[in-house]
């Protein structure tokens, strides 16, 4: 049976990917995302006029799954239709994680110069966002004029930790590919400022002024607004072939502060990450924060020797808690709480939606790779069945509005991260460990694999042999 599963499960993921892709192609080709109920495309306002987010986000997934006809269609679109001369308001963060990350991975996996040329051209367009008094970039940039500004909703013109803190992996690779040190300089400057500034209880608040370089308010979260900043610390260390000691120290110090101030145990025995507002805890965990099981897992082995088992246990506990939140449709809400008797349950109607997010499955994938405990594959399979049952519609996959009711209401969006992350992590969960091995690759926060930068050439050749 197990032998059969080895083939059947990845094949199943591949068919889900093909179904998602075919419908995108049929109804939304060249637009950013598919609206599967109304059978049309969605452009949105995050990518500054750039198009084809689902294509760029899918390139590596298609390639890794061996869907070569589909990969070739995607590549051809990049060649003929990816126009980088757009003139709209883009989120620096979203363009970086999806477009820069997607093109970098496509280049490293395939060696096609086209992707390298495109990504370097795009990287240059992002640089003006860093022209601030501190060098901390603003969140929004006009890709044509280079003007940048802060999100209207961010307090007092501040920049967001998870946005300016989620550039490091891609920018270091941009320097590698372009031989231009400027990208690495920009992200090292962010790190320098963060190292210098005083941190309340060792924590990193979510809002920072790009003008004064001071925190704007003391709200700390491992979920939205904070999340991938922490992820990029440990991944920067791993991607540097474990030479970036500064990233390592910063990561373990941050994790210590998180454990001391945010990690909680519920009355029912579930370990969770609360949110912190100037010392007051909000006993709520976002779906986004569920990536932290995987993050703590991949960082466990490089922690202090006496802490390694503890980190692995903590990673398993958080992943378990996130699995607990996946009920009764076997899909999880956007946020769940641990107060007034709640145990990993969304108590507000407005928190009950699921938009095809990957974070819980991402943690299953890492924990499977680290422990080979079969429960992670079982949990992953549960999610596959639930996606098929509740999110598959005639023309693609859709998010749902309420994970607590089985009479499903669909949100009419097939998010591009469903193709780049959710389906890729599921595929990897059911594949052998030597497909994109963690010793050779780190995944950016949109699940685009980037190679570890080897410090000596001999290792480099060995890696290339393995990965090609
Ligand atoms: C993705 O774009 C990335 O994973 C990001 O870090 C968080 N949000 C979505 C997925 O939920």
TrEMBL record:
Top-level taxon: Eukaryota
Active site: 94 (proton donor), 227, 334 (proton donor), 359
One cellular component term from this protein's GO annotations in UniProt: extracellular exosome
Pfam families, alphabetized: Glyco_hydro_47
Entry membrane topology: Single-pass type II membrane protein
Disulfide bonds: 290-322
Cofactor field: Ca(2+)
Residues that coordinate or bind Ca(2+): 445
GO molecular function: calcium ion binding; mannosyl-oligosaccharide 1,2-alpha-mannosidase activity
Its EC number(s): 3.2.1.-
Localisation per UniProt entry: Endomembrane system
Annotated metabolic or biological route of this protein: Protein modification; protein glycosylation
Keywords tagged on the record: Calcium, Disulfide bond, Glycosidase, Hydrolase, Membrane, Metal-binding, Signal-anchor, Transmembrane
InterPro entries from the UniProt entry: 6hp_glycosidase-like_sf, Glyco_hydro_47, Glycosyl_Hydrolase_47, Seven-hairpin_glycosidases
Catalytic activity line of the entry: N(4)-(alpha-D-Man-(1->2)-alpha-D-Man-(1->2)-alpha-D-Man-(1->3)-[alpha-D-Man-(1->2)-alpha-D-Man-(1->3)-[alpha-D-Man-(1->2)-alpha-D-Man-(1->6)]-alpha-D-Man-(1->6)]-beta-D-Man-(1->4)-beta-D-GlcNAc-(1->4)-beta-D-GlcNAc)-L-asparaginyl-[protein] (N-glucan mannose isomer 9A1,2,3B1,2,3) + 4 H2O = N(4)-(alpha-D-Man-(1->3)-[alpha-D-Man-(1->3)-[alpha-D-Man-(1->6)]-alpha-D-Man-(1->6)]-beta-D-Man-(1->4)-beta-D-GlcNAc-(1->4)-beta-D-GlcNAc)-L-asparaginyl-[protein] (N-glucan mannose isomer 5A1,2) + 4 beta-D-mannose; N(4)-(alpha-D-Man-(1->2)-alpha-D-Man-(1->2)-alpha-D-Man-(1->3)-[alpha-D-Man-(1->3)-[alpha-D-Man-(1->2)-alpha-D-Man-(1->6)]-alpha-D-Man-(1->6)]-beta-D-Man-(1->4)-beta-D-GlcNAc-(1->4)-beta-D-GlcNAc)-L-asparaginyl-[protein] (N-glucan mannose isomer 8A1,2,3B1,3) + 3 H2O = N(4)-(alpha-D-Man-(1->3)-[alpha-D-Man-(1->3)-[alpha-D-Man-(1->6)]-alpha-D-Man-(1->6)]-beta-D-Man-(1->4)-beta-D-GlcNAc-(1->4)-beta-D-GlcNAc)-L-asparaginyl-[protein] (N-glucan mannose isomer 5A1,2) + 3 beta-D-mannose
GO biological process terms on file: carbohydrate metabolic process
Gene3D superfamilies found in the cross-reference section: 1.50.10.10
Family statement: Belongs to the glycosyl hydrolase 47 family.
Biological role: Involved in the maturation of Asn-linked oligosaccharides. Progressively trim alpha-1,2-linked mannose residues from Man(9)GlcNAc(2) to produce Man(5)GlcNAc(2).
Name recorded for this polypeptide: alpha-1,2-Mannosidase
Source organism of the structure: Sphaeramia orbicularis (orbiculate cardinalfish)
Upper taxonomic lineage: Eukaryota, Metazoa, Chordata, Craniata, Vertebrata
Gene name of this polypeptide: man1c1
